[in-house]
């Protein structure tokens, strides 16, 4: 069989290193979101996923895998799409267009909550966010209810009531 595409000896190692770096970015970003150090809806998270996907896609030059290729294309496509939706002014333009087409009263949908500016130090995209009540899992420790009392199960020797 004729090899139409041969790489110099050092290139496969470099491609493998790119794949490993991309994997570290994927897993590291996911870990940061789970530890609540980074916002999963933030621009930085989306950019990191796009960079990781490009690095892993680059590593597929040496050892192609269709499943991995499709996953990386999906991450790049949807990451870029999400970034274009987050551009400053995009939300306001989309809201103005949707109100111009059909106001909320005519469509029967509830109006969207008003947007409030983010506080300094809030992880994620700087700009606007909906003013919603805090999620129950984000309440400070002082507000959390005490855990429910443990149920006592009868032992096999006790009569059932």
Automatic annotation (TrEMBL):
Residues 99-161 are annotated as: Disordered. It comes from the Bacteria. It holds the Pfam family CBU_0592. The chain crosses the membrane at residues 13-33, 45-61, 67-83. Residues 16-86 form the CBU-0592-like domain. Keywords: Membrane, Transmembrane, Transmembrane helix. Residues 99-123, 143-155 have a biased composition (Low complexity). Coiled coil: none annotated. This is CBU-0592-like domain-containing protein. It comes from Tropicimonas sediminicola.
